[in-house]
């Protein structure tokens, strides 16, 4: 009863002492060795020695004393030592691999949600504000956001091309419904001519260029970030199943299973001995350490830089505002565009038709566009920050792997008798080498030769992705004020951070306000009751479809809006 209450460590110490005593007096039976051999499913116990005997046929577990091992047992132990090593590696890397793979999946899922949300914002904008063209625009909106997703997740698509395709397809709709409204052209050839003319007549001003700039700056870093995470998983999977040299395999066998041959089934290797073996076996893997450290640092730098118009969340969720600005820009220059299109495409042969109406759910139309308030903890940027903070703990993972395995899994605790490769001793007396290939020249336990082509390939991949990550880490200058036009028309001055290709959908704390100066641009058949507002903050957007008209206007007046949507004649 008393024996059952002894601490486990004390009982192990007692057993080690008994084993040491048995060793010094000579092992009388191989029963424990046979049991452990069978328990590990290394093979049948038939033919195994019942008692120690001479073993001159052994190749690694050589001893002058009688042994409990046969040549076949030694071969089985060699396989077991290799399997044990792979298991140790997989166990050591499991938390790191789970961290990266879980976050890679979470980031992809979040991006998919953002793309769908941005697509819904844009669709509802057309449905609520430009209802007559909503159904015709649906296919172009869907194609655009499909291309956004394909690009983000690694497909070979060009952002400049799909941005241009979207605005090319938008121009015929704007022309038919806003610039020359009331009837719909029956000629597909004429619509195609208008589409092709878009880049010549620039109906949307510099907005397509701004969209290209925002998409390029935000999508490419996110795409590279995801690709880098997938490479991280590939690196870990490769090192988990690394092939070990013959010298290493023999050293692992000698360290882990040769004691069994002398009946020392409970012994553990000395710490110094374990470090020499593991540092020798993992010398090539340790060469990954500076590159792995640089990989994590580059991920961190890119993540830190992905804010404002470099933040894909900001860009996608504010895309619909730029689309609205583009439509307004074309309408304001309608007469000029009408003349330009007539010169390029001629006057159309037109037949009056009824444009299909938006088929969105009425409750969505009634309540307009709303964004659920997002907690700061839920943003993509904060998720990236949490991930990087966790990943930073693994910066020296490959450099300290050998030491970690010995300290946590393999070596005997300080002060306990331990195996030195030949016998049970109080301490290991050989020189202990450092990590890495260069340090192994004096390793007494493992001879390390040449380089490992698999590790070299991984290093090359890490170098490549580090270059990509560093190349996608923007260092933006202070963004300048945005000028949308000159002379008569619309001039937009923005407080906050913007440049020539950026929209300001709100970032940071508080609301970003836009000041519009309206000069003599209004068509004769439009009044200020047709102007309504979007209220936008950094936590969400509300499209107010019930707002009252503005106060009386002078020929030149200035007013402040928090975003703007204009409902133009003939489209509500």
Automatic annotation (TrEMBL):
Keywords: Cell membrane, Glycoprotein, GPI-anchor, Heparan sulfate, Lipoprotein, Membrane, Proteoglycan, Signal. Its main location: membrane. It comes from the Eukaryota. Residues 1-24 form the signal peptide. GO terms for cellular component: cell surface; extracellular region; lysosomal lumen; plasma membrane; side of membrane. GO terms for biological process: cell migration; positive regulation of canonical Wnt signaling pathway; regulation of protein localization to membrane. PROSITE patterns: GLYPICAN. Belongs to the glypican family. This is Glypican 5. Cell surface proteoglycan. It is found in: Cell membrane. It is a lipid-anchor; GPI-anchor. InterPro entries: Glypican, Glypican_CS. Residues 355-375 are annotated as: Disordered. The gene is GPC5. Pfam families: Glypican. It comes from Cercocebus atys. The keyword Lipid metabolism does not apply.
